[in-house]
Amino acid sequence: MTLKKFLPTALIALTPLMATSAFAAGLTVGFSQIGSESGWRAAETSVSKSEAQKRNVTLKIADAQQKQENQIKAIRSFVAQGVDAIFLAPVVATGWDAVLGEAKDAKIPVILLDRDIETANKSLYLTAVTSDSVHEGAVAGEWLAKQVGDKPCNVVELQGTVGASVATNRKKGFDDAIAKHANIKVVRSQTGDFTRAKGKEVAESFLKAENGGKNICALYAHNDDMAVGAIQAIKEAGLKPGKDILVVSIDAVPDIFKAFMAGEANATVELTPNMAGPAFDALIAYKDKGTVPPKWIQTESKLYTPTDDPQKIYDSKKGLGY
Ligand code: AHR
């Protein structure tokens, strides 16, 4: 939809900020969201709604319940509705070329949120708003290496959803970081699908297989929800999470700060839930002025430990929909 033709000239001539929000006011964006597997995901959905509201954008969210086929259906439906743009949080990295080709043929720009896709045709999407998830894994690995020094350390790893870019990358980043330290070894690694329940279940099997947990020095989880599930499993096994077994994970959801306060978790790497804000800004500039965004809009990744005033951070995150 070309909005300029519906706007009076005087309105177009307003200050850039006002003109931008006036322009955005007519946009409709379809968002194919993965589901609600984690606290982080819930916050991302909630922040996306409020970022759309701030800009008067109509946001239609389709929950894919973790299934790529549902995401493909949702994209086709958004194309049929003639939305102005599509946001896609791709559950897995591969298998998008055909449906994104349909969006491209319909001249509907697609913006990737928080996860990447594998494609030889980068023109299928306008930009990707994501963190550097290899770096996140590396930050977790380097933090652990510093903690343990020269001591031998057996690590168990809870991976994210199989085939998701963030799971592949967080594994790679961590593996690369600890490769420089012969004393640190990943002895078990399995998917916990980014959920608290699966994280607990898989952690229980790790504990059983590793002498009730006595052979484990650290747990690395690709998200905080799985870490929180694992913390419960470690306690039920009669060990102290955060002390007997170090816990490092990713996301920085409020519950991990609670775990910091209880001395049960040791480090997390923050992933901002605000992927939609930068995506809306890039989209509006593109539609309004033809400004082509960079192919990758990178969000910040920050390490937090219990020395970072967990109560204050917990309070600051409470209202974000986690
Ligand atoms: O893609 C981002 C990841 O997906 C988050 O780290 C995890 O919590 C979510 O499920």
Question: What does this molecule look like?
Answer:
The structure is a single chain. Helices cover 43% and strands 19% of the residues. By secondary structure, the chain is of the alpha/beta class. Helix 7 (165-179) links the parallel strand 6 (153-159) and strand 7 (184-191). Helix 6 runs parallel beside helix 7. The radius of gyration is 21 Å and the shape is elongated. The model is unreliable at 1-19 (pLDDT under 50). Alpha-L-arabinofuranose (AHR) is lined by residues 37-38, 40-41, 114-115, 166, 194, 223, 225, 250-251, 271. Alpha-L-arabinofuranose binds at residues 37-38, 40-41, 114-115, 166, 194, 223, 225, 250-251, 271.
Structural key phrases:
322 residues, six-stranded parallel sheet, disordered N terminus, binds alpha-L-arabinofuranose
Oligomer: single chain
Shape by Cα distribution: elongated
Estimated helix fraction: 40-55%
Sheet of most strands: 6 strands, parallel
Write the layout of secondary structure elements.
Elements: H1 9-12, H2 16-24, E1 28-33, H3 39-54, E2 58-63, H4 68-81, E3 85-88, H5 97-105, E4 110-113, E5 127-130, H6 133-148, E6 153-159, H7 165-179, E7 184-191, H8 196-209, E8 218-221, H9 224-236, E9 246-251, H10 254-261, E10 267-271, H11 276-289, E11 296-298, E12 301-304, H12 310-317
Summary, kept brief:
It is built from 12 helices and 12 strands. By secondary structure, the chain is of the alpha/beta class.
